[in-house]
Write a structure and sequence with these properties.
ER membrane protein complex subunit 3; membrane; EMC3/TMCO1; transmembrane; transmembrane helix
Length: about 260
């Protein structure tokens, strides 16, 4: 018996009146969603100079520790910066509210910080805009539903054939590159990519969650211990650079180092 290959072709009317409209509508919905999110977001509040200095001091210390094992700073400069930061952290010099007065305990951060509440509301607005389009599916006639989504049970179907439902999900996760090209990299139209531990429907719920207020007094105390630990791992990048350069270009043999 001779086996014949059966090809399944896509009806041009299905392509023109189902697949193309789904793609066009999803692109327009994504662009509209981006501009709605932009309109709903409140302008960021300006931070005080003291608050910025508090954050930058912690960042400076973290960068210093991260480069300790291959630091471009000479030993005397590295230790001077490390000791200066450690002393300032112990005295509370960089705290935006000033050093703690006397034996009074430092004031804990306000859990109802207006800035944190604004960030929470902004995240909720974004998630609301993300959820609204999912409540409006694309209705199809009964004839299309039986043919495009269910009812076709054949093992010889070409893998290139897609239904309207699978085409919707392909567009749902595949239009992010087009959104970045049209709206830029920082846009609100792109759908979050699913991770290995979270489903694509559970991840957006945690996507805009704002971080709680930080207690910089405790962070500075912990950073002092980290700076002391990093000093034990310190190594200058230029230590022995002459020998390394000569060895690399063949001017110094390993036997001459003995």
């Amino acid at each position: 018996m001779s086996s014949s290959t059966v090809s399944l072709y896509l009806d041009p009317q299905i392509r023109d009146w189902v697949l193309f409209p789904i793609t066009l509508v999803m692109i327009l919905v994504g662009i509209l969603r981006h501009y709605v999110v932009v309109l709903l977001q409140s302008p960021p509040k300006k931070q005080t100079r003291e608050a910025i200095r508090e954050q930058r001091a912690l960042t400076r210390s973290q960068i210093l520790r991260a480069t300790a094992s291959f630091s471009p700073a000479p030993p005397h400069l590295y230790r001077a910066i490390s000791h200066s930061l450690s002393t300032a952290f112990a005295a509370g010099t960089y705290l935006k509210d000033g050093p703690p007065k006397g034996d009074a305990p430092p004031t804990p951060p306000n859990p109802l910080d207006p800035a944190a509440m604004d960030g929470m509301m902004s995240g909720m607005k974004t998630q609301m805009v993300m959820m609204v389009p999912q409540m409006l599916p694309f209705p199809l006639t009964l004839g299309f539903k039986s043919m495009l989504q269910r009812g076709i049970e054949t093992p010889d179907m070409d893998v290139r054939w897609v239904s309207s439902l699978s085409w919707y999900f392909l567009n749902f996760f595949g239009l992010n590159g087009l959104y970045r090209l049209i709206l830029g990299g920082d846009n609100s139209a792109a759908e979050p990519q699913p991770s290995a531990t979270a489903s694509p429907f559970a991840q957006p719920a945690n996507a805009g969650a704002p971080a709680g207020p930080q207690d910089f007094n405790k962070l500075f105390k912990a950073e002092r211990d980290n700076l002391e630990f990093a000093e034990g791992m310190y190594k200058w990048v230029a230590d022995g650079v002459e020998e390394r350069v000569l060895r690399r270009y063949g001017k110094l043999s390993p036997a001459s180092l003995d």
